[in-house]
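Page 42, continued from yesterday. The earlier attempt failed because a stray header line got pasted into the input along with the sequence. Redoing it now with the clean sequence only.
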Amino acid sequence: MTPRRVIDTREGYLAAVELIAAGTGPLAIDAERASGFRYSQRAYLIQLYRRGAGTFLFDPPPIGSFAELSDVISGEEWVLHAASQDLACLREVELLPTVIFDTELAARLLGLPRVGLGTVVEELLGIHLAKEHSAADWSTRPLPASWLEYAALDVELLVDLRDVMVGLLDEQGKTEIARQEFQATLDKETKPAAADPWRRLSGVHSLRGAKSLSIARELWFARDELARETDIAPGRLVPDLSLTAAARALPESKRELASLREFTGRASRSELDRWWNAIEVGRASTSPPQLTRATDTLPPPRSWGDRNPEADARLKLARQSLLAQSEAQQIPLENLLTPELLRRLAWTPPQVIDPQSVASALEKSGARPWQIELTAQPIAQAFVDAHQKLLDDAEGES
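This time it went through. Structure tokens are written below.
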């Protein structure tokens, strides 16, 4: 087997762009990051395949911008698996698609029981695709030959897979549904950064008192700064639970912090001054965080029966109706309509319950036309039935 070659120079990259331009049809593209190892979510390998051109493995850091390649291929269809995972890091190097085909999304819409690339390729193409390097540290240099072979195979079968799926989507009458879903993936805006990202620390909910929360906040910021400087995943420096353990213990000295058994991690002692400084800043803070924060998060559905019985009834009946629709359409319930959207609609329904008002509410919430067409009527009927059921139950009790 011929070893795979990584393109890691501007000259090699520009020569590859010419070859890719001479190819034909859709392009398969994938990116490998170093999630869990590095702070950044940048691509450390970009793989591309096009019929008539071949397979190309690019090393993004030394190449820099891929604007020239994007100019050549941006108007073509790009085939990706789970595109939402890769679009951000591709855009970071100026690879900007305008039309995509997402084989993972297509597999969901086709009702396949499992949608991982390996299982989908095996089911539809009859080829076993090993996936043993999916969680590897792709910032490793040089990349092992076995990793490069795995990465190349990730794209070399995507165009064939796309062709089979196009036929199956057409047979099931889901071509337009898929087009809308692919476009929605492209159009999805990047989520704004969380207002208080430190509150996502594991164990932070167990902390009691403003002082502990202040210390947890400052430790999180100190770790985040170090992670950004070193491009190392924060949890590899000091785990979340170590930060919350220190915030809970409220150590009185640097020595006491160093002796805290739960305070572990590769940088827990080498950066002890950094952590102790954060603790002192947190302890002295005159603007501690609120113990709880205002949020528009809905209460968990399990509590709805007590807090909002009518919303609870609406949600349960609507979910039953959509489950039946999901089975009839052979589309997973979460793709038919996102659970969060349904919960919000059940909690705060339109003033007038009919298919038109429900359709309007769904549209304002970002539901796609195909979703509205399949769900507005059953949701409206479920909401009406829920209201009537509560009236009947109340009448029976009186």
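Notes: The mean pLDDT is 94.
Reminder to self: strip header lines before submitting.
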